[in-house]
Amino acid sequence: MRFTQPFEITKWDQSSYDEDGDLTLGRASVGKNFTDGDLVGTSAAELLMVGTEAGPAAYTAVERFTGTLAGQEGDFVMVHGASSDEDASHGKIVAATGGLAGLTGTVVYEHDDKGPRLTLDYELA
Fold it and tell me: Under DSSP, is residue 7 helix (H, G, I), strand (E, B) or coil?
């Protein structure tokens, strides 16, 4: 199964943990709300990021979704990331529990003039 769905960013708490010269290493705690589609619920993510004087350079994230997917209730964890030369963030589902146990698949996050959205390509056992 595959779908693309918008989401809302509800939290963004960012801080630096290493600044030296032109490079800054940081982290952010991010919350999201998914309401309009096959995915209904919330997620919490921790991002590790690197930035330069020119702007963001790369990030990697571990994100836990809690809610329902295709009517099944549970949690799943995604790992995703991107560098500044990519148009989207790619990742995969690495764990799932509850009614989503056995869930596998890939994720693509995009942020552009169409707004933030997630494309999920998955199989549910």
Answer: coil
DSSP 83-102: ETT-SSEEEEEEEEEETTTT
Q: Kindly report, residue by residue over 18-48, the tens digit of the pLDDT.
A: 998 899 999 999 999 999 899 999 999 999 9
Amino acid at 79: V
Give the CA distances from residue 60 to residues 32, 48, 90, in Å, rounded to whole numbers and listed in that order. Answer: 16, 5, 10
pLDDT at 125: 83
How far is the CA of 72 from the CAs of 35, 63, 92, 99, 100, in angstroms? 15, 19, 19, 5, 6
SS3 content of the chain, % helix, strand, coil (to 5): 0, 80, 20
Q: What is the pLDDT of residues 43-95, one digit of tens each?
A: 999 999 999 989 899 999 999 999 999 999 999 999 999 999 999 999 999 99
